[in-house]
Amino acid sequence: MIAVIALSSLIVWMWLNNSGYDNASARIYHEGELVHVIDLASVNVPYEIDVGNVIVQVRVGEIGVVYSDCRNKLCEKTGFVDGRVPIICIPNRLEIRVENNQFDFDGVTR
Amino acid sequence: MKKFLLIFCLVFTLSIVGCVRSTEPEKITQTIFVMDTFASITVFDNSDEAEAAIVRAFERLYEIEETFNYYDPDSELSWLNRMAFYEPVTMSEDMNVLATLGVRYSEMTGGAFDVSIGKLIELWEREDTLSPSQKEIDELLPYLGWNNIVFGVCQDGVSTTIRFLNEHVQLHFGAIAKGWAVDVIMWQLQNDGVTSALIDIGGEIGVLGDAPRESGLWHVQINDPFGDLEFITYVKVKGGTRVATSGTYERGEHILNPKTGYPADKGLVSVTVIGLSGNSADAFSTAIFVFGAGEIRNIIDRGGCVVTIDEERRFADYHFDGCDCGDSVEFINRLDVVK
């Protein structure tokens, strides 16, 4: 019986603390407004969305900017992210943050 | 009986776990675009007042932007920049604090950080050509420098005035205002009763109270300036700490050397300063980026930590006497740890 209790506790604990891609969600801010919240784990086929003058591609577990009309293209160069760093495009006032429990960081300095 | 006992135990276990979960502070994050960047505030607080405190903090940030916006002709800074050569200009309290700090850090860093170079920055931000001519830079540089800024006192004996000794001097707070704003917002949140928070203004970080993990330390990642995520570095810091980075990640090669008039070229791509004041961390990270890692000891005169990343992807960390960061800097190889 102790084993059953221990197992059930473990299952409940894992369920409550589910980590990894299952919990990765991307939040896209444009002009300071939250315009998209995307569950990256539920993506079946990659797709693109327009946010102002930027094209964002969403893949399974990650997200990136594939086109921006800005001069330095720093947002494109950041590549696809899965939770460690945000993607920033200051000229287009775009920020993409991925929240992923897999990485134990509170903030990013840049 | 056994069945009953089993159900009882399960319910008991779930209740315990549920109780543990419910006592965890709620995480609330809000983001706005202000000061030409993104600012987000995350609070870990169950009180009803937490969201209201964030709203008040954002109102304060908009106020700071309105005062120090170099590009808004109606801002206090623009007015001051237009008038201070012709007559002493009375400053608001915020302007007085930031202008005073700006001049102090300009002097302390020997001009590696210089608050007077607004016109030089304008030259490099022009859109008609890629870069200004040598002649334009040579004509401007002799007139710049913090020693061309003079403070005075108004006739009321309380307010402070500012005056420029030539018409080329223009205050620009791009390398200090965000760090200072982090300080201001930290104090305000604390006064509003928030006990645990992380403030991020364009990558300048401030942390308040304990982080919601056993150690209570906050994990702040230093961004990979190369963007290919081959490595991760992060610092573990106590509540009250500020972390500021100057680098090419967010805005490209925008950091100018006030001595040469050209973008800084000391081989660094990222400089992070960890200390107890956002305004000094912000200004000093710029100064180290400009003068190079060899000058760090001349720039940092008190406790703090510095992490540099150079063009060859070499990391270095420096700890100074009285540094409150201890062994907080940890280098993590992404391949070993994250994947």
Note down, in words, how this protein is organized:
The complex is a heterodimer of chains A (about 110) and B (about 350). In chain A, about 15% of the residues lie in helices and about 40% in strands. Chain A has helices at about 1-15, 75, and strands spanning about 25-30, 35-40, 45-50, 55-60, 60-70, 85-90, 95-100, 105-110. In chain A, strand 3 (about 45-50) and strand 4 form a beta hairpin. The longest helix of chain A is centred in the N-terminal third of the chain and has 15 residues, at about 1-15. Chain B has helices at about 1-25, 50-70, 75-85, 95-110, 120-125, 135-140, 175-190, 280-290, 295-300, 335; strands at about 25-35, 35-45, 90, 150-155, 160-165, 195-200, 205-210, 220, 230-235, 240-245, 270-275, 305-310, 315-320, 330-335. Chain B is globular, with a radius of gyration of 23 Å. The N and C termini of chain B lie far apart (about 50 Å). The chains are: A alpha+beta (about 110), B alpha+beta (about 350). The interface of A and B includes residues 32, 79 and 81 of A. Strand 8 (about 105-110) of chain A pairs parallel with strand 8 (about 220) of chain B, so a sheet runs across the interface.
Can I get a quick summary?
The complex is a heterodimer of chains A (110) and B (339). Chain A has 110 residues and is α+β, with helices and mostly antiparallel strands.
Structural class of chain A: alpha+beta
- What ranges of chain B have pLDDT less than 50 throughout 5 or more consecutive residues? 17-22, 331-339
List the uncertain runs of chain A: 14-21
- Helical proportion of chain B? 25-40%
Helical run tally of chain A: 2
What is the strand content of chain A?
A: 35-45%
Main sheet strand line-up of chain A: 2-1-7-6
How many alpha or pi helices of chain B? 10
Give the overall form of chain B.
globular
Structural class category of chain B: alpha+beta
Q: Could you spell the SSE succession of chain A in H and E letters?
A: HEEEEEHEEE
Roughly how much helix do the residues of chain A carry, as a percent range? 10-25%
Q: What multimeric state do the chains show?
A: heterodimer
